[in-house]
Amino acid sequence: MSSDSILELQEIILELGGRRILDCLSMAFWPGHVHAVVGPNGAGKSTLASMIMGLGDYRAHGGDVRFEDRSIKELSIDQRARLGIALAWQEPARYEGLTVRRFVGAGAADATEAALRRRLEQVALDPDRYLDRAVDRTLSGGERKRIELASILAQEPRLVMMDEPDSGIDVEALGRIFDAIRLLREEGVTVLLITHSQTVLEQADHAFLICCGRMVAKGSVAKIKEFYGERCLPCDHQNAPREDCNGER
Question: pTM for this structure?
Answer without folding.
Answer: 0.89
